[in-house]
Amino acid sequence: MASTILIKDLRDGEQILRFFEMRSKTLRKTKGGQIYLDLKLGDSSGEISAKMWPEALQKWGEGFDLGDIVKVEGRIEIFRDRSQLIVDKIRKAEESEVPDISTIIRITECNVDEVFDKMVQLAETVKPAELSNFVLEILERVCDQFKLAPAAKMIHHAYRGGLIEHTWSVALKVLAILETEPKINSALAISGALLHDIGKLQEISTGTRTRTVEGRLIGHVILGTTFLRSVALELGLENEPWLVDLEHILLSHHGEPGFGSPVRPFTREAILVHFVDNLDSRLKIMDEALESVDSDGFSQYNKWLEGRAYAGTELEPLEEENV
After folding, report:
1. Which helix H or strand E contains 268, and what residues bound it?
2. Same domain, 88 and 130
3. Same domain for 46 and 179?
4. For residue 200, what are the domain limits?
5. 318: Cβ–Cβ under 8 A, 6 or more apart, which residues?
6. Which ranges of 80-185 would DSSP assign to H, the alpha helix?
7. If you placed Cys at 42, which of 47, 126, 173, 250 could pair as Cys (CB 3.0 to 4.6 Å)?
């Protein structure tokens, strides 16, 4: 029976039989010229390097690919002070074989069906009706993929359902700020929040969480904007005055050319979506960094934060005075 022990708990010398997610697969050669497979296997707790030497490769080296769930038999060894898995046997497995798929594939904790319904309900409040129907049409076309897609390959919300979790979180933050900023066009801001990362559905493969050819060569900012324009042309909405404003939000939501945006945000709505998107992603990076801290409350060095996150001081809540 397959073990449920997580990668983070594996120890040197252990014999294992368990499920993993295949995250990378590369054919390499030893110094002696023999071909072997260099793998990266993962679960919800992390990743481990794995080697499939020529004898095992000859017997078990086919029938699985990136993004597959695989059942692996092997042993843990230490190489250059790091754990690695020596694969004796491997085969592709079905998700239905895994007792708890969330131990293998990290999955959002939110109910994606409920969140998608809330996004639709929010889009229905947008005026004019043409803009509302445009956003609803796009959401309907990508519904199934949206519910499964990660928001990133590795930086933030990089797990199944991460994109819809991030998108809804951005939308909620935008709604909160709209209460205090009456000069911002709420319809454009809401529409931009809901659609700002729509290009990631083309940029990142849902199954493997790797970047597609289009994702590498074009990027989600342009892919999303192009998708919006193509739907608008199909629906005869290319001359609607709100379309360019909405496209500008998508094009500028990364803020700077050095971060993937061809233009900086030059409208109130674009500025709002840019900063809220950045806020939500940074807070998620903090949350994930602080999942493991030392005795002083500091995380390990995080390259996205360019430092070590700090959990902060826990303050006792103030006691209410009797009136």
Report:
1. helix 268-289
2. no
3. no
4. 112-286
5. none
6. 112-123, 129-148, 162-178
7. 47
Tokens of 86: 């020596």
Q: Could you tell me which of 230, 234, 131, 144 has the C-alpha nearest to residue 190?
A: 131
- In angstroms, rounded to a whole number, what is the distance separating the alpha carbons of residues 91 and 70? 5
Q: Are 276 and 173 in contact (CB under 8 A)?
A: yes
In a domain, 194, yes or no: yes
Tell me the average pLDDT across 121-129: 97
Looking at this protein, which amino acid is placed at residue 45? S
Averaged pLDDT of the chain: 89
Radius of gyration of the chain (CA): 23
In the predicted model, is pLDDT for residue 81 greater than 70? yes
Does 136 lie in the same domain as 78? no
pLDDT computed for residue 292 by the predictor: 76
Q: Up-side HSE of residue 187: CA atoms within 13 Å toward CB?
A: 16
Q: How far apart are CA 98 and CA 7, in angstroms?
A: 16
Residues 156 and 221 in one domain: yes
CATH of the domain at 240: 1.10.3210
What secondary structure letter does DSSP report for 321?
A: P
Reading the block at residue 48, the tokens are: 């481990």
In a domain, 247, yes or no: yes
Is 115 within 8 Å of 143 (Cβ atoms)?
no
Report strand pairing: 35-43 vs 82-93.
Answer: unpaired
Residue 102 gets which letter from DSSP? G
Give the pTM.
0.79
